[in-house]
Design goal:
Chain lengths: ~300, ~325
């Protein structure tokens, strides 16, 4: 495996006497979208602020492309593009001039690159309006634009879909996937919305009360050998139920038109075949995906802020 | 350099900055018209070839007035004295001109101090207020550089305002009163005596000395802004100190240590005119050293607060 894009080493933060982050230890690889998930107050933003050097690290370190954010700030941070919390802009400058501010702070950002980024986030002509008149969604886009200006190898987005309309969310999601797959960027996305993260991330780290509770592979959740809830719309219903009960040890439930049962994914075709052989007509089959949500709640339990 | 350029763009993109320039322009023009139409006639009088006789007649008239009017007993003697100085030294009095107007307007530097305080107080704390500080500090640039680009930006702004005041006063003065040559000399009252000075040097001295207070107060506001991240507090404290500074010094003047107070040292003019010193043990060098110490302490505190502290949520 190649060198990780970002590495958290026993990262701790104590404010006063209260430990806020109690030792985070994980890695993010290039080309991967990493979801940083946790309830409000779990320490997501504090961790992100430490990643970009906005706040001091009490103990441990963050290594970006192998460089410590503590001791080698300039060389570490130049690989990072980020939005921390809300994308705040100078309200009295146009979107374009806001971008210029940041373009002047790093070397090698050309006007062509600025245009490229603007069209990438789809701001179009609105870029020349004052940022004070932007909607939250537009500011979010501008925020992403400023984070991408200098072609960072790590992109950190704090709640990136916040305030975007559904089509905007889709676009951003597609765009993030694209960045990771085509340009090999490591993307860290924080959110408290599981459904969001589930759709765009490869791996999810779940944080609760300043501790990493679990790191999950998103794909594994979907293909896991766990039982899935299957609904079969069949006719006639009663004989079908009786038949399946004789064939399977499972408990079969009945609704108005459907049978419900929990089986492994690989068993489904065999069951359907048997039903058809019994002369039972099948009008529809649907599988209820075991979502991450169940897992998420299993892991974090009640959201109690210590 | 780019950083300072960035700061200047942000500064001039705000309407309040332009209001400051407009206020100065308005006062320069308004003040000019006030002086022109409400000022003393005698100031604008153009004397002919036999100006000696004119001045003598004037003096005789002034003395006559003093006998009729008690009030004039106080106002007339200085004018007579000035006329006598002209006569004794054989200098023809010149009418009031644009140069003198520029010199008079140097009192407006306190207004510039005020505006500079407002800008210095806001330049850091506003980044916190807007939330943009987070985006600013995640660039590959050290916090120290960002801090000093902001400080340099404040000084450039103050200098720009001062030059703007000079130029507008000069243009307004030249149009309304005309100019007596390129560097006319003027007669000034100085510790019981009159002296003749080149107006150009006087202007440089007046504006230059005003820079001392200006820079010190701007640095002070800048420090408060960096420490407390609140522009209201920085503006309030700095303006209060600027206004009350002399009163505080006067109040504490009985104590020996009062000479170490910042405001006892900002008025360097006290060493130039040969006037009365606040404290006899004070010298120009002493004041400059005290000022420098304050200056370094202010900047040091601002630097420590800005580079060491966490940028946490609002």
């Amino acid at each position: 495996m190649s060198k990780p894009a970002m590495q958290l080493v026993k990262l701790k933060k104590t404010i006063g006497k209260k430990p806020i982050i109690k030792g985070l230890d994980f890695e993010i690889q290039a080309g991967e979208v990493f979801g940083f998930l946790g309830p409000n107050g779990a320490g997501k933003t504090t961790t992100i602020r430490m990643m970009v050097g906005l706040i001091d690290i009490t103990e441990g370190d963050v290594l970006i492309e192998g460089k410590s954010i503590k001791t080698d700030f300039k060389n570490a941070i130049q690989h990072v593009g980020a939005i921390v919390e809300n994308p705040e802009m100078y309200p009295f400058l146009s979107g374009w001039k806001n971008l210029q501010q940041y373009a002047r702070m790093v070397e090698g950002v050309t006007e062509a690159r600025m245009n490229e980024v603007v069209s990438l986030v789809g701001l179009g002509n609105a870029i020349h309006e004052k940022a004070g008149r932007y909607s939250l969604g537009m500011r979010q886009r501008l925020g992403i634009a400023q984070a991408l200006l200098h072609r960072p190898s790590i992109l950190i987005l704090d709640e990136p879909t916040n305030g975007l309309d559904p089509s905007g969310i889709r676009e951003i999601r597609k765009y993030i996937r694209n960045l990771a797959e085509k340009e090999n960027v490591a993307v860290i996305v924080s959110s408290h919305l599981l459904s969001e993260i589930e759709l765009m991330c490869d791996r999810i780290g779940i944080i609760k009360n300043g501790e990493l509770v679990a790191i999950e592979n998103v794909q594994s959740v979907e293909t896991e050998e766990s039982l899935q809830e299957v609904y079969i719309e069949a006719e006639p219903l009663a004989p079908a139920k009786t038949y399946l009960e004789t064939q399977l040890a499972n408990k079969i439930g009945v609704t108005a038109k459907e049978l419900s049962l929990s089986v492994k994914r690989e068993e489904i075709p065999a069951i359907l075949k048997k039903l058809v052989e019994q002369g039972i007509s099948i009008y529809g089959v649907r599988v209820l995906q075991a979502t991450l949500e169940d897992k998420f709640f299993d892991l974090i339990g009640e959201n109690t802020i210590e | 350099m780019n950083l300072i350029w960035n700061e200047q763009i942000k500064l001039y993109a705000q309407k309040s900055t332009w209001v400051m320039f407009i206020v100065i322009l308005a006062i320069a023009i308004g003040g000019g018209f006030l002086t022109k139409f409400m000022g003393e006639e005698a100031d604008f009088k153009e004397y002919g070839d036999n100006w000696q006789t004119e001045l003598q007649e004037e003096n005789a008239q002034l003395i006559a007035d003093m006998e009729k009017d008690e009030f004039k007993e106080f106002t007339n003697p200085p004018i007579i004295a000035e006329n006598n100085y002209h006569l004794e030294n054989n200098i023809k009095p010149k009418p009031y001109d644009g140069w003198e107007y520029v010199l008079e307007n140097s009192f407006l530097s306190s207004l510039i101090s005020l505006f500079t305080i407002v800008v210095a107080a806001g330049i850091i704390s506003n980044e916190f207020k807007w939330g943009t500080i987070k985006l600013l500090l995640i660039r590959p640039i050290s916090r120290t550089k960002i801090l000093f680009s902001k400080y340099a930006s404040v000084l450039i702004f103050a200098l720009t305002l001062l030059i703007f005041l000079l130029v507008t006063s000069w243009i307004v003065g030249a149009i309304l009163f005309g100019l007596n040559g390129l560097n006319p000399s003027i007669i000034q009252h100085q510790s019981e005596d009159f002296v003749q000075n080149g107006v150009f040097g006087e202007i440089v001295e007046a504006y230059g000395l005003s820079l001392v207070t200006l820079v010190m107060m701007a640095t002070f506001a800048f420090m408060i802004s960096a420490i407390f991240r609140s522009s209201g507090m920085a503006i309030g404290l700095a303006i209060f100190l600027m206004m009350a500074g002399n009163a505080i010094v006067a109040f504490l003047a009985q104590y020996e240590w009062s000479k170490y107070i910042l405001f006892a040292n900002t008025n360097l003019k006290q060493y130039m005119d040969g006037g009365v010193l606040m404290n006899e043990s004070m010298t120009l060098t002493f004041s400059v050293v005290v000022l420098l110490v304050y200056f370094i302490v202010f900047l040091g505190a601002a630097w420590t607060a800005f580079t060491k502290r966490d940028i946490a949520g609002q």
